[in-house]
Structures are given as C-alpha cells and as structure tokens.
TrEMBL record, chain A:
<keyword id="KW-0963">Cytoplasm</keyword>
<dbReference type="GO" id="GO:0000398">
    <property type="term" value="P:mRNA splicing, via spliceosome"/>
</dbReference>
<feature type="repeat" description="WD">
    <location>
        <begin position="123"/>
        <end position="158"/>
    </location>
</feature>
<protein>
    <recommendedName>
        <fullName>WD repeat domain-containing protein 83</fullName>
    </recommendedName>
</protein>
<dbReference type="InterPro" id="IPR051980">
    <property type="entry name" value="WD_repeat_MORG1"/>
</dbReference>
<feature type="repeat" description="WD">
    <location>
        <begin position="81"/>
        <end position="122"/>
    </location>
</feature>
<dbReference type="InterPro" id="IPR015943">
    <property type="entry name" value="WD40/YVTN_repeat-like_dom_sf"/>
</dbReference>
<comment type="similarity">
    <text>Belongs to the WD repeat MORG1 family.</text>
</comment>
<keyword id="KW-0677">Repeat</keyword>
<keyword id="KW-0853">WD repeat</keyword>
<dbReference type="GO" id="GO:0071013">
    <property type="term" value="C:catalytic step 2 spliceosome"/>
</dbReference>
<dbReference type="InterPro" id="IPR001680">
    <property type="entry name" value="WD40_rpt"/>
</dbReference>
<dbReference type="GO" id="GO:0005737">
    <property type="term" value="C:cytoplasm"/>
</dbReference>
<dbReference type="Pfam" id="PF00400">
    <property type="entry name" value="WD40"/>
</dbReference>
<feature type="repeat" description="WD">
    <location>
        <begin position="48"/>
        <end position="80"/>
    </location>
</feature>
<dbReference type="InterPro" id="IPR019775">
    <property type="entry name" value="WD40_repeat_CS"/>
</dbReference>
<dbReference type="InterPro" id="IPR020472">
    <property type="entry name" value="WD40_PAC1"/>
</dbReference>
Length: 340, 969
C-alpha cells in the first residue's frame, strides 16, 4: 500500500491496545516526513534523541555542540541551545518542559531554561565525558553519568555547585542512566547494571558480563531492559535480577546504541549497526519488525511516551516514524476532526 | 484677645483687633466656622501649628496630601532609574514656618549648646588654677577662661540632678572624723601640700567641737589632677625664676626669696585662707623705688644681709636651698608620711608622691645554656624510601633517626604505640618482674582467656584461630587428620611454640635462604609499614634469613618486649616471611590496581565493606544464562539525606553518618589481610582477602582449561550438573595437590578453590541456625522437597563418577564449616566492635537488612532464610501490565503452572525446559515459599547433622539441585 506523505499523520492509536493490532501497525511503519527533519545538525550526526515528557517536543543533541528543540507535530525547529564546548552527548527535559539538561564531552552538565535558551547552571565536576544525563521526576535533581565511572547528583534547587552525592560504585564508565520515582538505574561499561533504590537504601548489582550500552525501565516499573555490546538485549526482572527475555539478531558491537520499550511495554526496540531498528515481541522474543532506517548506524532511538511513534537518528537526520492507519477513511475522518 | 486700648502700655496685644463697631452698619452675619481662616502675610493659609509641633493641619485640608493625592516629592521609580539613595534630612520635612524665628529650627545665628553659657566646670577651673600658679605667666588661665566656654559634662549634670553641689565630694555623707581622713588621703593621693602650720587642722578641730554627733557632712571634694600638657622644655620640677616672688615680694623680706614655696597660695586655692596674711598690692621689690602711694615706709634701699647667704658649706638642713627654690616641699612634717619619705633621700617632685607599695621587680630568667654542640641551623634529614635500600641500611637509618622516626608515623597518636614503644619514648627502664598479666595467671586460666578471646579478637591472633582458610586447607590436604591436629594444637595453646611453629620457621628459612631470595635484592613488600620499629625488626629477620641464620627469629626480636608481644611478633614474622617469600606470585595475583592512588603515606585504604561475589561465578552463570541470584549482588547503600529529600523519599538510614557504600578502613599492606594461614601443618592457601579482588586473568585460566576440556560434555549436560562438575574438578584439582605436598612444604601459592571459598565465607558469615529458627520459627516447616529430592536422586547417579574422583572434598568441607561457624557472631555485632568479623564476613550491622547476596548464597548452599525483602516485594508487586493484558497474563501464568507441574512429575523432560521463558512472577512466590520452608527444615536437619559431625553429599547435591530447578523454571 503506497501512501502519499502527509503532514497530518494522526493515527488512531487507541486501537493499539491489543497486541495484534499493534503488530500490524508496526509492520507498516514508514517514514512519513523525514525530509523536513533534515536537520541543521547537517554533517555532525545527532547523537541522542529524546521526547519531552508529554511527547510534543523532541530534543536532539549532536556533535555541533548544540542542542535543538523540535516540534514533533509540525517538524519545525523551535530553538537551538548552544553553550557546550564539545559535542553534546545526551539531553533530557524536565516534566514541565521548562528546563532542559544536557551533558557533553566538555565534562559539563548544563541546565537550560527552555524559553530563553539561557544557561541556568553549568555544572562542572566530572573528570571525563559525561555520557548520560537525566532529570528526576520533579526535576529537582539532575543525574549525570560519566566516563569517569561516577554518577553525580546535582541539585537544581540550591545554588550549590557541588553534587549532592557522587555514586562511584561503577568500576568503569557509566554509559546509561535512567531515573524512576525512587530508583536510579545505571549501566556501566564494566558490564554491570546497578539499581540504586533510594527508598530501601540498597544497591542491586546485576552482572551482565558485557559492556552495557543502554538501560531502561519498563513502563510498569517491574522490569529493566539492558542492551549490551554482545549484541543482546535482555529483559531482567527488577526485583530478582532474573532474565525474563533475551532479544538478539541485531548488531551492537562497538557503538553505544539505544534500546527502548514501546509505550505499552509490548515491544522491545533496539538500534542496530546495520541500519535497522529491530523490534521484538516482548513476551515471545520473536523479531517482529526490522525497520530499515538507512545504511549507516542507527544512532539513537526514542519511543513516544504515549503514542505509537518512534524517533530515530542517523547521520544528521532525525526521523519520526508513526504507525500507518489501517483505513483511509479513518485518516480522513481524523483529518477532518482536526480541521474542524 | 480683647484688650483695653486705654491701657495699651500695660498689656501685650496679640492678634488682630476687631474692627470698631459702628452703629449704623447693619449687623453682619457671623462668619461661619469653616470660613474663619487665618492667612499669613503672603496670603497663604496660616496654620496654627505645624505638623511637627503637634498639629495635623498641614497640606491639603489638614492632610499631608495634595490636591492630586499624596506623592512623596522625591519618589523615583527604582525600576527604570535606580536612584541613588537619598538621605532625608529633617529639614526636608520642615516648611518655612518651622525654619522661621519661632519655629523648631530657626535659621539664625544662635549659640548652640556647645557655646551656651552654663555653669562653669569649677573643678577643672580649680585644677587649672593650681597649675597656673606654676605657669610662667600667672594670669594665663584666666585668659583661657575668658575665651573658652565651659560646659559641664553629662556626668556632672547627672550628679547635680542627684543633689551634688559644686565643691562637695562624691559619695555618701560622712561624719566628721571620716571626713577628715578623707581629706588627708585626698591630699596625699594628689600630692598637694597640706597646710604647713596645720592651721586648717586646728580649724577642723575647732569645728568638730560644736558639731553635733548626728550631723553628717558631704565628703570633701577631691582635687582633680590637671591634665594640661607640659609644653615647656624645662626639666621636671624646674620652674625658673619664681615670678610670684618677683612680683609680690617675699612674705617677710624685700629680698627675693628664692626658697619660699607658694604653698600659701595653694592653700588659698583650697579654700583655707591664711589668716592674718598681709598682702600688698603694687609692685615692690629691690629694683623699684618707693612710690608716693606706698603706705609703708620700708627700707627701700634694701641692704642685703649676709645672713641670707650661707657662710658655711654643709651643716644646713636638707631642703634649705640645696636644690634652689625648685626643690619640692618637704612632706615629712607629718608623722604618717615620715616613715615612708624617710626612706627616700631625695626630693619629691611636685605632683609626685612616693608609691605606697614597692614596685615589683620583674624577674628575668636567663636564657638556657645551649649545649656545646648546638648548631642554630636546622636541616632536614633525607627521607629514604626503606623499600629501595637494603634492610641493613634501613635498620641503620631507623636507629639513627631515633625518636624522630617514631614521631613521624604516629598518626594515630599515642594510642597506636604499644607499651614498649611508649617506654622507649619516655626513656624508662624495663619493669622487673612478670612482663605480662598472663604470666600471673594460671595455665588453665590463660587458656580459657585465649579461647574466649578467639572469636572476637583481631586478626593478630589469627594463628590460633581456626580460620576458614585453614580449615579448608586442612580438609583438602589431610582430611580428618587435620581436625585432630587442630585439636591438639588447641591443647598446646598455652605453649605457643608448638612443633609446627618450628617447622614453619624452618620452612621460612629454607625459602628465604634459597637462591631466588638471594637474587632478589630489593624488598618490595613491607607488611609492617605502619610501625617502623616492627618493620625494621622484620627486615632484620628477613635479612638474617637470607643469610641462612637459624636463630634469625630470636635475634631480630626486641628483647625488651614482653613475652606475649614477642610471641605474637614471632608468629607474624614467620607467617609474613612465608607469605611474602621471594618470587611468589601468589600475592601479586591477589591485588588489583587501586582505583585511585593514595599517597605513599596513607597506610590505610577505604574499602567498601561489602564486596562483590566472585566474578568467575557470575561469568559462568551468565554463560549459562542463569541470571538472577547468581548474578545479582545487593549491597547496603546510603543515599544522601538531601537526595532523599529531593526524591521525596524518607531517608532509609536516618542518622547514618556516611553516604554511599559502607566503608571499612583497612591497612593497605597489612599482613592481617593474609594471616589466615593455618597453624596446622597443611598451610596451603589462604583465602583471598575480601579487600582485594582476585585478578581475573589468573583465575580465568582455570576455568578456561576445564571449560575447554569438558566443552562438549557440558553442552549436553544441564547447567547445574555442569556447574557442579566444574566445582568438583576444582576441588579435586586442588585436593591432590595439597595432599601431595603434604604438611609444611605445601606451596602457599596454590590457587584457592573459588567454589569452596565461597562456601566457606558465606557459611561463616551466617549466624547459627538456632538464631534464625528462633526468629522465624513460625514461618518455617511444612517442607515438601519432593521435586528437588527426586532430582537429586537422578542427578546423583550422574555425578557419581565425578564425586568419586573428588574424594571426600565437599563432605569434609561441610563438616569443617560446622566447626568454623561454631561461635556464631551475634547479630548485633557492630563493625567497630569486631573488625575481624568484618574482614571476613560482609554481614552488615543488625539494623540493616542482611545483604541480598548473602541471602542468595544461603538459598543455594544452606538452609534458606525467609527473605524479608524479596518475598515481600514479590507479594506486593502488582501484575506487570494493568487491565489490558490481564487475561493474557493469566494465561501465561497458567502455562507456567503447567510447566511446573511437568517439571515435578516428568523429570525426564527436565533438560529441555531450559529453553522455556522464565517469566514466572505469579509462580515465584509459591516456589520461594516452598523452597524456604524446605530448606529451613533441611537446615534444622542439617544442624542436627552438623552437631553429629557432617553433612552428607546427598544433602549438598539436593540443595544444589533445588537451585537448578528454580533456575530452570
């Protein structure tokens, strides 16, 4: 089924509640409007992507030392945040979209004001590249993981420039970091996934035996997803550390590539070095979709927090993928609704 | 208001008179009140009173506003224009009226308070007047008085308010006698002259006669000190030609009396006029003639009489012109003063008195005598790295440095020193008599003490302690015989130098005197670096060992030490020598590089208390995809309080002093990290200390070798059996080795068996089962280990061959575990109390939940404890996906239950089930419960067995298989 590209790509996502339906949708993923996302990151590829908390905006950061904010629905560049001295490696938005934080090879973490584009705070302290950065739920703490093996917790409330706490348990660089309500999940190159439980005051270390590239919490908060350089994505039970699923087939040998879960925890998605995005069924572990993005390495991907949309980054291009509607009529209806 | 015009001169008129009333004019309407206004001369409305004089009839209709409203005149918006702060003066709030003649701040020249004429400060005047007598120009101060305004100070004003009057003294009113004394003291204090002839005294006495008893008087005023500066350049007390005498003439004669004092004048100033003193006005004297107005007809042509001059040298009374007229008056007329002044031979200057108290002389201590060879230049002794020089040189250096060297490392303060060191520092002699308390005790008491001390003592007593390492070594090497040996060793505890110690010494000697040792010149490892003396002794010992000296040990020990200390050191030295013998790679492979390099000075390292489990195990587990308990470690971790606050989470460890992982200070190169070597002859391998992680590559090789060898079989075997077999191979591998080398000659470099070590450690760390049973008794026991037992039977056959090869390894190890765990550390032991326990067991303080990894290990190898956290969380946990996938999830669960049933009944299918998904959250609870009950009951069994003497291999197998079953699900 060939379709023309439309800017109104709204789809009935509510019918995705059942698994089979989503399956179909995913198999019909297509790039709907990647052209207008040909970003001004031009030659330097975007290194990391993330949706804002509500999914209306997306944030791309790249080796042009800047951070760019896009509108997902219109595909327009909203703002560029420049102030880093080297390539920007990761960025995150606060829950209320009022603040951004980004980290860079220049060893700094910057807290931005979204509206003005001004640097609110520049946090120095890491001894090396800062790989990952994340707000906590209320954007009161910025957590940043660095190649120096530490995770630093920066306070955004106080004027102190020293981190609240330095988590130096990792024996190698921290490559990935996720924060939930009261937990902090870090993946390290030393092949361990560490989960700091603030409520219990415990640190759980899961040994994976291969450098971790990305860690995620599942949406229900019961599982963790880890991708490692042995080209495997593993779904681990959070509380016991037992492996619930193992997803292979993609290629992840050298790059720090992302993986993620779909918004409803039904699928596992991972970047691959062969230019595809792999999508597995979470329960079955079978490969559901091999989404061709391009020829180069898919650098980063991010799944929309509520809808069936996927962001991919490859070679200076950010693409938003959406599920194709089943029926043309439906789409028309939706468009009309939008116009009305 | 109304005033009679007739008597104008007598009255003061104020205001404007009413117009004269005229008859024919019609009566005017009375002016209403609000129209009755007063205007000033300029036609402006006159206010009756200004805002500052009590009224409010200001501004706009008696408000402070204007017609437009009230706006401060100086208001400047601070937003656009940050106006500089303007200081408002009082004048800003005044108007012309206030500034007018009758206002509150009249603008005209008036005398201010400073210049207002008030009462003069009489006291000061007096003081001035007194000094003015001595001034070159007599009327000097009078001029000043005329010019300078006087203003009494606040103190004077206050005094006046309180009823003080000028001329009185300050203080309570006194009776006559006191008053007189006061006066005396006052004169004395200020050195003013008392009346020469005692005229005033007589007066006083006269007064006292008629004064009644009950009348009090104000105290006499004190004469103030005049503080006018000395502006001339004369010497103290010098006055030059007395101008008074010159002008007034002497009292008696016309001769210029150079020697007359002006005390009369002073007296007059003090209000005591000399009666009958004749005063002459006018100018009189030798140089002047007699004027027409002169009354007296004095002999104007004065003839100087010779009697005015001294004709004889000396023989005159002192004070009679010895110092000229400047000589101060004599005060010794008073008897009171006589004694005091008599001591003073010279004259007292005016204004000065003799001090009543002798001035205390400052004692000045002479500087200490410097030793002859003292050199005032300090030079720094070169710091020599002891490791780089030969032990002899090091020793020499140590001794040459003497006390300085000792002070340097005493970072821990004096408490770090032992008694011998302190004694040395203080330069005390060795005490006679029994050197130790132990010597006073009976033998059996001593024994009992040492046995008591053993569980909790520090590692220094390691040798006498049956450590796990020792125990295992014993197992591997000699089996049951070792136990007997240890028993005998315990019996021989009182005599610390059991034969085996001798053997060890011999061994050390043989090792160190070998060629490799000789080749190795520089000693790299210094186990006693913290105490330089000890290290020096150790160096000496090693040095003598190298030379092949048999008495090396005895020679190197400090003879001044107590017997007990010497015995301790002897053991340590021998053991250290054995461990750090040259060319042994056993140590190097036990160290990983420090995360951050501390300075050389830092002799302790902060090590996280809880250490990760063996990586090899985990790697194996990962290879077998047995994620879960094997790959997971759980540590106690303390988040920062602020971090908790930011995350809206209560602090899990409120009041904990630290942040992060609990840390333990440990010696960097402490011999105690390695001193777990047994005292038993089978001194094989010591378990790697917790602080150092075994290096991976060294151990990997073992795994790899066995892995490569049995690669194919392993693929067919199921993971657990494989796991077991590997363990067996390991055990058997190290077993024979140890047994062949047998006894003291055992190579300490033998790789410790990782599996067993694991067991040992976790076995030891666990408190005794009775404790757990006491706590968790209710939840335990219903026990249905049917499945695992079934498996075990099956597996046993498979393992039979391996086990036979491995010999009695596991069995005995278990048995020994029983022994080692005997003094189960009470749960409440805190790290500070028992550092030793901490060293080996990663058990946290009682308050903290037990570390998870321990728990897991226990599940595998021992009776399972009811896990407080995991089960709870499992039960609490909601289903992963809420409504939408509920039914689906149920289905899955059902499937899994089915699968489990299969697992129970059809055991032959077991192997295949490896490939099944293990998402089994619902089921997990159940299995866990089963297992826990199962294992706890087993534990009770095991406990009984343990008391009996050992755990069977079947038991072990069954436990292992229970894990396997779990993992397979």
């Amino acid at each position: 089924m060939v379709r023309t590209q439309t800017n109104t790509h709204t789809v009935r996502y509510d019918c995705c509640s059942t698994w089979s339906c989503l399956c179909i949708y995913i198999t019909r993923f297509r790039c709907f409007s990647s052209s207008h996302f040909l970003s001004t990151h031009l030659s330097p590829p975007p290194l990391s992507l993330s949706f804002s908390a509500d999914g209306n905006y997306l944030l791309s950061c790249g080796s042009d030392k800047s951070l760019k904010l896009w509108s997902v629905s219109r595909g327009t560049l909203l703002k560029t945040y420049s102030g880093h001295g080297y390539e920007v490696l990761d960025a995150d938005g606060s829950y209320d979209n009022s603040q951004l934080c980004s980290c860079s090879s220049d060893k700094t973490v910057i807290l931005w004001d979204v509206a003005t584009g001004q640097v609110t705070r520049k946090l120095r302290g890491h001894a090396g590249k800062v790989n990952c950065v994340q707000f906590n739920e209320e954007a009161t703490v910025i957590l940043s993981g660095s190649i120096d093996g530490t995770v630093r917790c920066w306070d955004t409330r106080s004027r102190k420039f020293d981190p609240i706490q330095i988590l130096d348990e990792a024996q190698d660089g921290v490559s990935s970091l996720k924060v939930s309500e009261h937990e902090l999940l870090t993946g390290s190159v030393d092949g361990r996934v560490r989960r700091y439980d603030l409520r219990m005051g415990q640190l759980h270390v899961d040994f994976i035996n291969s450098p971790i590239t990305c860690v995620c919490f599942s949406a229900d908060g019961q599982c963790t997803l880890t991708s490692s350089l042995d080209s495997t994505v593993r779904l681990l039970d959070k509380s016991t550390g037992e492996m619930l699923g193992e997803y292979t087939g993609h290629k992840m040998k050298g790059y720090k590539l992302d993986c993620c879960l779909s918004s409803k925890d039904t699928h596992v998605l991972s970047c691959s070095e062969d230019g595809h995005v792999y999508c597995w069924d979470l329960v079955e572990g079978s490969l559901m979709l091999k989404l061709p993005v391009g020829k180069a390495v898919v650098q980063s991907l991010s799944f929309h927090p509520s809808e069936t949309r996927l962001l991919t980054a490859m070679e200076g291009r950010v693409q938003v993928w959406g599920a194709e509607p089943e029926e043309t009529e439906e789409e028309v209806v939706v468009v009309q609704q939008e116009k009305a | 208001m109304a005033s009679d015009s007739d008597s104008d001169g007598d009255f003061v008129t104020f205001g404007t008179p009413l117009e004269p009333l005229e008859e024919d004019e019609p009566l005017r309407k009375p002016v209403p009140l609000y129209e009755q206004t007063v205007k000033d001369e300029k036609g402006r409305y006159q206010r009756f009173h200004g805002a500052f004089t009590g009224g409010f009839s200001a501004g706009y209709f008696n408000t402070v506003g204007t017609k437009e409203g009230w706006t401060p005149a100086t208001f400047v918006s601070s937003r656009q224009q940050k106006a500089g702060r303007q200081n408002a003066r009082p004048e800003d709030f005044m108007d012309e009226e206030d500034l007018g003649d009758h206002g509150i701040a009249p603008r005209q020249i008036t005398t201010t308070a400073d210049f207002a004429s008030g009462r003069k400060d009489v006291i000061r005047d007096k003081a001035r007047a007194i000094t003015s007598l001595s001034a070159p120009i007599p009327g000097d101060t009078v001029l000043e008085d005329l010019v300078a305004p006087a203003r009494s100070s606040m103190g004077v004003e206050l005094l006046r308010k309180m009823g003080w009057k000028d001329g009185q003294g300050v203080g309570p009113r006194v009776k006559r006698r006191l008053c007189k004394q006061r006066a005396d003291s006052a004169t004395r204090a200020f050195g003013s002259a008392s009346p020469p002839n005692g005229s005033s005294e007589s007066q006083d006495e006269e007064d006292g006669e008629f004064v009644p008893e009950n009348v009090t008087f104000a105290p006499k005023d004190v004469t103030p000190i005049d503080f006018t500066p000395k502006v001339d350049l004369h010497g103290l007390g010098y006055r030059g030609l007395n101008p008074l005498a010159a002008l007034r003439g002497g009292p008696g004669t016309g001769h210029i009396n150079l020697f007359t004092m002006d005390s009369d004048r002073t007296n007059s100033l003090f209000g005591e006029d000399r009666k009958g003193q004749r005063r002459r006005g006018g100018v009189a004297g030798q140089g002047f003639g007699v004027g027409a107005m002169e009354d007296d007809d004095e002999d104007i042509y004065h003839r100087d009489i010779m009697s005015n001059y001294d004709t004889v040298l000396g023989g005159e009374e002192p004070g009679n012109g010895l110092y000229g007229w400047t000589a101060p008056q004599q005060y010794n007329r008073k008897k009171k003063d006589h004694s005091k002044d008599a001591a003073y031979l010279g004259k007292i200057l005016e204004g000065f008195t003799l001090a009543s108290d002798k001035l205390e002389t400052k004692t000045i201590f002479p500087p200490p005598n410097l030793p002859r060879d003292f050199r005032p230049v300090h030079y720094f002794r070169p710091v020599v790295d002891l490791s780089s020089v030969s032990p002899m040189v090091a020793q020499a250096l140590q001794t040459s440095r003497g006390h300085m060297a000792q002070e340097e490392p005493s970072k821990g303060g004096r408490h770090q020193l032992d008694s011998a060191q302190r004694r040395e520092l203080l330069g005390e002699a060795t005490l006679q008599g029994p050197s130790s308390v132990f010597d006073l005790l009976k033998v059996e008491d001593r024994e009992r003490l040492s046995s008591l001390r053993r569980p909790s003592s520090d590692t220094s007593s390691g040798p006498r302690q049956p450590t796990p390492g020792e125990a295992r070594a014993a197992v591997v090497a000699a089996g049951v015989a070792a136990a007997a040996a240890r028993a005998s060793a315990q019996k021989a505890l009182s005599s610390r130098f059991a034969p085996h110690a001798e053997q060890q010494q011999q061994e050390a000697l043989s090792v160190w005197s070998g060629p490799t040792a000789q080749a190795q010149t520089g000693q790299t490892f210094k186990p006693f670096e913290r105490t330089p003396h000890k290290q020096a002794r150790y160096d000496l010992y090693i040095d003598q060992l190298k030379q092949g000296d048999r008495d090396a040990l005895e020679l190197s020990l400090d003879p001044t030490m107590t017997e007990w200390e010497r015995g301790r050191e002897r053991d340590e030295f021998v053991r250290a020598a054995l461990l750090y013998k040259p060319s042994s790679s056993s140590l190097s492979c036990r160290f990983t590089r420090g995360k951050q390099d501390d300075g050389v000075e830092a002799d302790t390292v902060e090590v996280t208390r809880d250490q990760e489990n063996d990586v090899d195990d985990k790697q194996a587990a990962v290879k077998m995809k047995m994620f879960g308990k094997l790959t997971r470690d759980t540590f106690e971790w303390h988040p920062d309080n602020l971090l908790c606050k930011r995350f809206n989470v209560p602090d899990p460890y409120p009041g904990s002093g630290f942040v992060g992982m609990p840390k333990v200070k440990r010696d960097k190169f402490s011999v105690f990290n390695f001193l777990t070597v047994s005292e038993s002859p089978t001194a094989s391998a010591s378990p790697a200390p917790q602080g150092v992680k075994p290096s991976e590559p060294g151990k990997r090789s073992r795994w790899d070798v066995s892995g490569q060898a049995g690669d194919k079989e392993r693929k067919e075997k199921d993971p657990v059996s494989e796991f077991l077999s590997v363990a067996r191979i390991e055990a058997s591998g190290s077993g024979p080795e140890a047994s062949t080398t047998d006894g003291p000659t055992t190579d300490p470099t033998v790789e410790p068996d990782t599996e067993q070590k694991e067991e040992e450690e976790e076995e030891e760390s666990r408190p005794s089962m009775d404790l757990f049973k006491a706590i968790f008794a209710s939840s335990s026991d219903e026990k249905s280990s049917s499945s695992s037992e079934g498996e075990s039977e099956e597996e046993e056959e498979k393992e039979e061959g391996v086990r036979s090869k491995a010999g009695t390894g596991p069995q005995i190890s278990n048995q020994l575990n029983v022994n080692t765990t005997q003094p189960a550390p009470p749960v409440s032991t805190t790290p500070s109390q028992h550092p030793d326990i901490l060293f080996k067991t990663p058990s946290g303080p009682a308050a903290a939940p037990p570390p998870r990894d321990q728990e897991m290990e226990e599940e595998e190898f021992g009776p399972r404890l009811p896990p407080p956290s995991s089960t709870l969380t499992a039960e609490r946990r909601p289903s992963p996906t809420p409504s939408a996938k509920d039914d689906k999830h149920k289905k899955k669960c059902k499937e899994k239950h089915k699968a489990k049933k299969h697992g129970k009944h059809k055991k032959d299918k077991k192997q295949k089930k490896k490939h099944k998904r293990h998402k089994h959250k619902g089921k997990q609870k159940k299995t866990k419960k089963e297992e826990s009950s199962d294992s706890s009951s087993e534990g009770s069994d095991g406990n009984g067995q343990e008391e009996g003497g050992g755990v069977s291999t079947e038991e072990l197998l069954r436990r292992l298989k229970s894990i396997r079953g779990k993992n397979l699900q």
